[in-house]
Amino acid sequence: MTMTTTTTDHPGDHGDPGGENLFAGLPEQDPAAMGRLRERLARDAMHEGVLDVAYRVLDTPAGPLLLAATEQGLVKVAYAVQDHQAVLRQLAELISPRVLNAPGRLDEAARQIDAYFAGRRKRFELPLDWRLSKGFRRDVLAHLPEIGYGRTESYAQVAVAAGSPRAVRAVGTACATNPLPLIVPCHRVVRSDGTPGRYAGGDAAKRLLLGLEAAA
């Protein structure tokens, strides 16, 4: 069974990020049939062991989030400003071209993210696939979940915690290239003067996350 990246809509998810649609021949007025075909394709792909990366797009107060997972765990979270179509191409290049819109693998991640935005969850408990982060950047990301909900640390503080006090700029790069924002909370890293600083999901998204946690 040969598979390329496909991007079909899923009930409850945000729209199609772009790319080839395997169901283009179906009548547009029959979304139920499209849904059944999509689910069957995902089941067949998993059964035959040819689904390497599953993804879905989840609507959130911070905008649509692309969630992608391998068999090892969640491997990528991306905001709309990061260009979901480009992210899917990157996953196909870096991990495997066998990428499929198969929301079932992301159900638990979606539930936990929904609970976070509803104020019912302060820590994520999900298996993670870290293959997109290496070296010192990985050391930085490993520390970030230790920054408690509603708390922040400066880039300099994170550099010390990661074992390289002088690597403040490298901490900024690690946060900017975090493949799992929100889940690995780089939004809790701020400038030394307390201002939020930049964020891969956009400045507004960072302010929203910090405000949500501070309010709780």
UniProtKB/TrEMBL annotation:
EC assignment: 2.1.1.63
What Gene Ontology molecular function terms does this protein carry? methylated-DNA-[protein]-cysteine S-methyltransferase activity
> Which residue ranges does the record assign to the Methylated-DNA-[protein]-cysteine S-methyltransferase DNA binding domain?
136-214
Region Disordered: what ranges? 1-27
Biological process annotations from GO:
methylation
The reaction(s) this protein catalyses: a 4-O-methyl-thymidine in DNA + L-cysteinyl-[protein] = a thymidine in DNA + S-methyl-L-cysteinyl-[protein]; a 6-O-methyl-2'-deoxyguanosine in DNA + L-cysteinyl-[protein] = S-methyl-L-cysteinyl-[protein] + a 2'-deoxyguanosine in DNA
User: Does this UniProt record's set of keywords contain Transferase?
Assistant: yes
Cellular location(s): Cytoplasm
Ranges of residues in domain Methylguanine DNA methyltransferase ribonuclease-like = 54-129
What remark does the entry add? Answer: This enzyme catalyzes only one turnover and therefore is not strictly catalytic. According to one definition, an enzyme is a biocatalyst that acts repeatedly and over many reaction cycles.
Biological role stated in the UniProt entry: Involved in the cellular defense against the biological effects of O6-methylguanine (O6-MeG) and O4-methylthymine (O4-MeT) in DNA. Repairs the methylated nucleobase in DNA by stoichiometrically transferring the methyl group to a cysteine residue in the enzyme. This is a suicide reaction: the enzyme is irreversibly inactivated.
Q: Which family does it belong to?
A: Belongs to the MGMT family.
What name has this protein been given in UniProt? Methylated-DNA--protein-cysteine methyltransferase
Please name the source species.
Answer: Streptomyces polygonati
